[in-house]
Specification:
Radius of gyration: 12 Å
Helix content: 10-25%
Order of helices and strands: HEHEEHE
Distance between the termini: 26 Å
Shape: globular
Bound molecules: iron/sulfur cluster
CATH class of one domain: Alpha Beta
CATH architecture of one domain: 2-Layer Sandwich
Number of strands: 4
Largest sheet: 2 strands, antiparallel
Oligomer: single chain
Structural class: alpha+beta
Length: 86
């Protein structure tokens, strides 16, 4: 992610998310992070939350599944509900 974007984005610096265990996985077998394209506005807030380089936003958000640890930080930061775990 471009550093400039992080500096300008509305929430400013994303604080460390301290609730729960880092990279703890939800106990839902067979579920994964998905993007609802019709809700994604390409704001890149999810990129600021992800610590695992598991997202790409080029217009719309895409999940790089092999990098995703299911921590769901991004889901908490998406302002439109475009990220779902199902
Ligand atoms: S669930 Fe976690 S690792 Fe996966 S894309 Fe979201 S923030 Fe990144
Ligand atoms: S998934 Fe959500 S946070 Fe990420 S770019 Fe799309 S609208 Fe923004």
């Amino acid at each position: 992610m471009a550093k400039g974007f992080g500096d300008k984005a509305t929430p400013g610096t994303v604080p460390p998310l301290i609730s729960g265990l880092a990279h703890d996985r939800p106990i839902v077998e067979g579920s994964k992070l998905n993007v609802l394209n019709e809700l994604c506005v390409g704001c890149s807030y999810c990129l600021m939350a992800c610590e695992d380089e598991a997202l790409l936003v080029e217009g719309l958000c895409e999940v790089i599944e092999e990098n995703c640890t299911d921590c769901l930080r991004c889901l908490l930061w998406c302002p439109t509900g475009a990220l779902v775990y199902s």
